[in-house]
Amino acid sequence: MQAGIVLFPGTNRERDMALALQRATGRRPAMLWHRDTALPAGTDLVVLPGGFSYGDYLRCGAMAAQSPIMRAIRAFADRGGHVLGVCNGFQMLTEAGLLPGALLRNATLRFLSMDCHLRVERADTPYTGRFQRGQVFRATMAHGDGNYFADDATLDRLEGEGLVALRYATPAGEATPEANRNGSARNIAGILSPNLRVLGLMPHPENQVDPQIDGTDGLPLFESLAEALAAA
Amino acid sequence: MSIDPPALTPSSPSGATSGPTSGRPVPALLEADRARQLAGEFGLKPEEYERVLAILGRTPSLTELGIFSVMWSEHCSYKSSRVWLRELPTKAPWVIQGPGENAGVIDIGDGLAAVFKMESHNHPSFIEPYQGAATGVGGILRDVFTMGARPIANLNALRFGLPDAPRMKQVIDGVVRGIGGYGNCVGVPTVGGEVNFHPRYNGNPLVNAMTVGIARADRIFTAAATGIGNPVVYVGSKTGRDGIHGATMASTEFSADSEEKRPTVQIGDPFAEKLLIEACLELMATDAIVAIQDMGAAGLTSSSVEMAGKGGMGIELVLDHVPQREAGMTAYEMMLSESQERMLMILKPGREAVAEAIFTKWELDFAVIGHLTETGRIVLRHKGQLEADIPLAPLESEAPLYRRPTAETPKQPVLEAASVADPMGIEAALPALLSSLDLCSRRWIWDQYDSMVGGQTAKRPGAADAAIVRVEESLEQGGARALAITTDCTPRYCLADPEEGGKQAVAEAWRNITATGGLPLAVTDNMNFGNPEKPEIMGQFAAAVRGMAAACTALDFPVVSGNVSLYNETEGRGILPTPAIGGVGVLEDVAQAVGLALAPGLDLILIGETRGWLGQSLWLREIAGREEGAPPPVDLAAERRNGDAVRGWIREGRIAACHDLSDGGLLVALAEMAIAGGTGATLLPGPASLPAHGWWYGEDQGRYLLAVQDGAGLLAAARAAGVPAQRIGRSGGEALVLPEGASISVASLAEAHERTLPALMAGDA
Which of A152, B300, B508, B716 suits B10 as a labelling partner, its CA being 20 to 30 A distant? Predict the structure, then answer.
């Protein structure tokens, strides 16, 4: 698997992401620059990591969605490429129209930095193959604007087509309001594109990949990708 | 206007004079009476202004007067504190850079260095809490990455007034949002800190921010400028009129234009800071930089004066080249502006293009604004006019230095536990203490700070006595080295006995690092006190330094950097003396680190001697309603012996959980461990010789509570090491079962512990 991590000037979780990908694949991902207009040949995964792209003083990810590399990423996704957007990356994917909906201010109106539990809604995707359907794993979340919003028709379509990848849940797997700290519609933490190759999610599974640091709850996501893309 | 020839002839670094000065061109000078009046408004004492006249041999220009007044301000010159700070130990074999640079540097092994400092932003944070706290974080980050280190951890030591005091909830909310807003965006995890509440901070909260960074031990950058003719380069954000010397606010009449003056609080831009970090570290990987310093307090003035002064050079700047945010700025305004996210660098000749390309890539301003000279003077030009010409050596060597009168704080009597009646019993006091302001959970605060970014935070807030952050550079070398970081101070002890309080602050930092298994290496200090012109305040300062020095020496825990914040007074009433200590230690393997969460089936072992010290304890204040007595003394020999033993046992893998005993004493510490682990315990009675409230809630120092598999083995080891140790119970179940049989569920304690801050701050979103 050849992964590329896109660096915007305000990206700040690129090193976390690189360590997670390296742990799962044994290969160091390439670092791509926001002004690049093409992806390196052979790239089979593009990752938009967390951070504050261009400061995000405007709507989070709004400017990043217009950046030079985004055109290349959109074309890559159109050709069936795999794109993972985490936190700020998820915000960019919605702003760029690669995923539907938007991420609003957290319902608490405060930055939320804490653990959450995520329920895996389907295990037959490139990102979740190493999980079981219904399995719950722990992940860190750290965002001010993670409150997923879409109109009811869009939400119904996402549900109907099975494109909700992850939901905020209790450790026992119940998608309760208490487990949904940022107030996301229908407890949605992550969604997929119709071809299941683009995933956007707010929490940071890349922070739970190392037993020395905070356990390995998030590692299966990266191992799933490594497996799916090795076979591809 | 007639001008007398200068009385002083400055020396160049070689010792040669810089030539005849009587013919030197002079800037547009202030009229003599006006200059004297302005000097007073800028905070210069009459005798200090006489020195200015002697150094210049004439009246100053406005810009020159501004430079003298900020360089000789308490903030920049440490004129009241320097004579005392010299008493602190600053050396150890592992100290690479002690006080005097932008930050301290210590060797942490593997060819790596930890670079760290703590700094206050007290006054701005009260005036404008969000920006005051945010720019406090920004400033301390720059102090660290300017030395070549990538920041890996932020901490903060906060002191607030009581939440029902006027404006205080807004201050609390704004400070927490400001710290989070800045730290979260720059991508440096905020991993720890401390908070106290006391009415003496009602009109003067304290915001002390600490940053720790990692550099290669052989790639430390400093501020000493060298190389005649080398370019002086300005990078970062543009200079605006924000943060200009507060004195300008009071002196509008000398300004011809009537434009409204901006507030003196700076505005932070964490995105610009992030760009500056990346650009500086990228440039530091080349060999282009001779010297570098951030533009912090007193901005362009202090950075240019200090860089040239440290290198024994002169410096000449053409202020027209300074990137400016708005038109029409004067030389005075540019030199005094405290606009944020700016750095000054000296480059090697011919490296301007390499550097400019990097800063352009990161979309930051880059401008060559001057060069180094051999004159030993700072010369400023603007719009073709000479604006300032000051000899640098006397600006530093003639800076005022005061040994102000001190008055000792009277000793308070020792309060015997047996003499204090217990008004509510052990059981009822526990939830009351756990929900009190100084002991309640800080989750509401740390939930707003990204503590995980970087992927190296092994123990986040609440998980251990010190934050544990693995060093990524060590990981890259196949190691797993980690830092243990903490901030500590108990201001109520410092008020009652500043010397014991200073000692205790250092000892507690050392203890907190030790309790994780870390080896404490060095500290940074942030000395927050009231008005030093009052003998009792200067006496507090001197005594606190004495206590700190004793503890730092006994614990091999030298001071490598620090900051002094004086005049923390409102309406004549000072804050509690608050010498905040930031401690850094190292673990060779992050896997050795232990936290405080209790697991079932373990023996609970108390380390250290318990006399039942209730004087100045939180039990006495919160339960008995009294703030009195001598604070608990720190026996430094026992502290060292107990701590070294505990650290050794942790490294041998014998300790499952460890917590130091501090505020609230033994039962509060146990409850914190129980809450963290969701596990109860059954407790044995204390010694018959002590009243129960002294045993359970006394705050005797030098103590730890350990949870271990093999209690008998540990007691034997303690006996062999001469360390006082006793079994106080065993973990398990879902409640704390007191010796008298009372049972308090851990869930109810957790609820009491967690409810306070969210309830207080509800509705303030």
Answer: B300
What SS3 string covers B331-397? HHHHHHCCCCCEEEEEECCCCHHHHHHHHHHCCCEEEEEEEEECCCEEEEEECCEEEEEEEHHHHHH
Token readout for B44 is 């210069």
3-state secondary structure of B414: coil
User: Which pLDDT value is given to residue A6?
Assistant: 98
Pick from B446, B452, B470: CB nearest A204? B452
CA distance A209 to chain B (A): 9
The whole-angstrom separation of Cα B116 and Cα A167 is 40
pTM score over 0.90: yes
User: How many interface pairs between A and B have CB atoms less than 8 angstroms apart?
Assistant: 96
Which residues of A lie inside 8 Å of B (Cβ-Cβ)? 9-13, 15-16, 19-20, 50-52, 54-57, 108-114, 140, 142, 144, 204, 206-207, 209-210, 212-214
Contacts of A113 in chain B (CB under 8 A): 180, 184, 446-452
Confidence at residue B127, expressed as pLDDT on a 0 to 100 scale: 87
Spatial separation of the C-alpha atoms in residues B681 and B704, rounded to whole Å: 17
Domain span holding position A129 = 3-229
Confidence (pLDDT) at B22? 58
Neighbouring CB atoms inside 10 A of B505's CB total 29
CATH of the domain at A206: 3.40.50.880
Closest CA to B679 of B656, B660, B663: B656
Strand locations in B24-149 (E): 95-97, 104-109, 112-120
Q: How many domains does chain A have?
A: 1
Q: What is the ipTM of this complex?
A: 0.96
Catalytic residue among A60, A87, A117, A223: A87
Mean of pLDDT values over A120-130: 97
Q: Which residue from B64, B80, B137 is spatially nearest to B403, judged by alpha carbons?
A: B80
